[in-house]
């Protein structure tokens, strides 16, 4: 036997499903736009090296925005700044073989996989920085 739902019950069920599923997707997108912090996120790039064909690699990388501020001060350099970047805290290295390499070229290509990321000082050893410590 099939039970019939009243229009009010049907409306409530539809609203509940929308709030649990549909609204969650929209809220997640909004949360990413406002996200302050640093997290591991999937990233795809084209690995290339002279003498080999390219290979698309999907790995984990650091992604996010970190709190940054500057304020003027009276003494040189006349500005005090607190600049942090989303950077690697812990990584492991993976190696793949690039396709179609010339006989004189090593096909090995090594890249980092992010295991943990944090907001921190920009270090040129792991991150592309405008200025570094």
From TrEMBL:
**Coiled coil segments of this chain:** none
Q: Where in the cell is it found?
A: Secreted
Q: Which residues cross the membrane?
A: none
Q: Which GO terms describe its molecular function?
A: hormone activity
Any idea which UniProt keywords this protein has? Answer: Disulfide bond, Glycoprotein, Hormone, Secreted, Signal
Instruction: State one Pfam family annotation.
Output: Cys_knot
Glycoprotein hormone subunit beta domain span: 38-130
Q: How does it assemble?
A: Heterodimer with GPHA2; this heterodimer interacts with thyroid-stimulating hormone receptor (TSHR), and hence stimulates cAMP production.
Q: Which family does it belong to?
A: Belongs to the glycoprotein hormones subunit beta family.
Spell out the PANTHER family in the cross-references.
GLYCOPROTEIN HORMONE BETA CHAIN, GLYCOPROTEIN HORMONE BETA-5
Could you identify this protein by its name?
A: Glycoprotein hormone beta-5
Give the originating organism.
Answer: Cyprinus carpio carpio
User: What does the organism's lineage look like at the top?
Assistant: Eukaryota, Metazoa, Chordata, Craniata, Vertebrata
């Amino acid at each position: 036997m099939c039970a019939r739902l009243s229009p009010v019950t049907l409306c409530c069920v539809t609203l509940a499903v929308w709030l649990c599923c549909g609204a969650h997707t929209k809220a997640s997108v909004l949360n990413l736009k406002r996200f302050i912090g640093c997290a591991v996120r999937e990233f795809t790039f084209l690995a290339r090296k002279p003498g080999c064909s390219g290979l698309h690699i999907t790995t984990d990388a650091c992604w996010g925005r970190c709190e940054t501020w500057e304020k003027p001060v009276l003494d040189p350099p006349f500005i005090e700044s607190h600049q942090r970047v989303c950077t690697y805290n812990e990584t492991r290295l993976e190696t793949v073989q690039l396709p179609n390499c010339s006989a004189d070229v090593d096909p090995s290509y090594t890249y980092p996989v992010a295991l943990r990321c944090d907001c921190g000082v920009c270090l040129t050893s792991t991150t592309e920085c405008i200025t570094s410590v």
